[in-house]
């Protein structure tokens, strides 16, 4: 089965999200907070018409550790963009148009009432072409610095995750070799009514599924339109209602 570097761009975001869910990197997006539940690709109108269309790529419901003056709980919404980086350090399939489209999606999430919004670039490195301190990183860093400047004036957070597989390994070696850096921290926004209603419904689903060796992962089944549950260590998530299997590949 193809590795992420070869997956068609249209499928790559969904596959990348699911691959991260079965690897410890998934916890990076929770910061220092406790992860209560995750939701993947849920349409904003999944619980009835509300004037919004389109999916939210990834949602994390978080609870704070018991530290005074910290926000007790909140929900992060993520807009995910993937791109490949070839051996010359050229970032492919994530041109400025696609990046700006990502920012517009974040604005839509803000209009929907999301309280903390992140744009995430997942950069999938060509196999065996990168070593730490390689000069090609300057080229990559320049692109990421330009993007950081575009996000800074907004309310959104911005972060980057690098994924690469080695000959015999899985795809997350780079995640460990190049630890996550903070690019832009998002601002805490007041929660809006449509988002509150939407996430209350998701929380209800998650509550029924319960926490079993990890948080429940809710996802939208494109086959039957229901919201089944998966878990963090599942290789190929299956819809419990209709049996549809998400092709995540090895
Ligand atoms: Zn289904």
Explain how this protein is built.
This protein is α/β, with parallel strands linked by helices and 250 residues long. The chain has one domain (4-230). 27% of the residues lie in helices and 22% in strands. The protein has helices at residues 9-21, 96-112, 136-151, 173-177, 193-209, and strands at residues 34-43, 55-63, 73-85, 91-92, 116-125, 157-163, 217-219, 229-230. Strands 1, 2, 3, 4, 5, 6, 7 and 8 form an 8-stranded mixed β-sheet that branches. Strand 5, helix 3 (136-151) and strand 6 form a beta-alpha-beta unit. It starts with 8 loop residues before the first helix and ends in a 20-residue tail after the last strand. Bound molecules: zinc ion. Zinc ion (ZN) binds next to loops.
Profile the largest sheet: 8 strands, mixed
Helix share, percent: 25-40%
- So what's the overall shape? globular
Ligands and ions found? zinc ion
H/E series, N to C? HEEEEHEHEHHEE
Number of domains: 1
Q: In angstroms, what separates the terminal alpha carbons?
A: 6 Å
Q: Mean of residue pLDDT?
A: 85
Radius of gyration: 18 Å
Query: What structural category arises from helix and sheet content?
Result: alpha/beta
Number of strands: 8
Residue share in β-strands:
15-25%
The total of helices stands at 5
What keyword list fits this structure?
globular; alpha/beta; eight-stranded mixed beta sheet; 250 residues; binds zinc ion
Quick structural summary:
The chain has 250 residues and is α/β, with parallel strands linked by helices. The protein has one domain. Strands 1, 2, 3, 4, 5, 6, 7 and 8 form an eight-stranded mixed beta sheet that branches.
């Amino acid at each position: 089965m193809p590795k992420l570097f070869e997956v068609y761009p249209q499928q790559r975001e969904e596959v990348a999200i699911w691959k991260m869910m079965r690897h410890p990197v998934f916890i990076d997006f929770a910061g220092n907070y406790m992860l209560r539940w995750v939701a993947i690709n849920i349409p904003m109108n999944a619980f009835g018409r509300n004037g919004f269309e389109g999916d939210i790529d990834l949602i994390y419901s978080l609870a704070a550790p018991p530290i005074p003056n910290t926000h007790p709980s909140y929900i992060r919404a993520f807009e995910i963009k993937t791109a490949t980086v070839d051996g010359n350090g050229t970032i492919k399939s994530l041109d400025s148009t696609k990046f700006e489209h990502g920012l517009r999606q974040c604005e839509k999430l803000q209009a929907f009432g999301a309280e903390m919004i992140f744009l995430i670039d997942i950069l999938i490195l060509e196999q065996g072409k990168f070593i730490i301190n390689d000069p090609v990183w300057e080229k990559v860093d320049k692109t990421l610095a330009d993007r950081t400047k575009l996000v800074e004036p907004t309310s959104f957070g911005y972060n980057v995750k690098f994924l690469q597989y080695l000959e015999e390994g899985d795809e997350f070696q780079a995640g460990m070799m190049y630890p996550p850096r903070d690019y832009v921290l998002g601002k805490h926004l007041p929660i809006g009514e449509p988002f509150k209603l939407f996430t209350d419904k998701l929380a209800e689903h998650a509550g029924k599924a319960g926490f079993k060796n990890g948080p429940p992962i809710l996802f939208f089944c494109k086959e039957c339109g229901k919201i089944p549950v998966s878990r963090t260590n599942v290789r190929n998530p299956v819809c419990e209602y209709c049996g549809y299997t998400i092709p995540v590949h090895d």
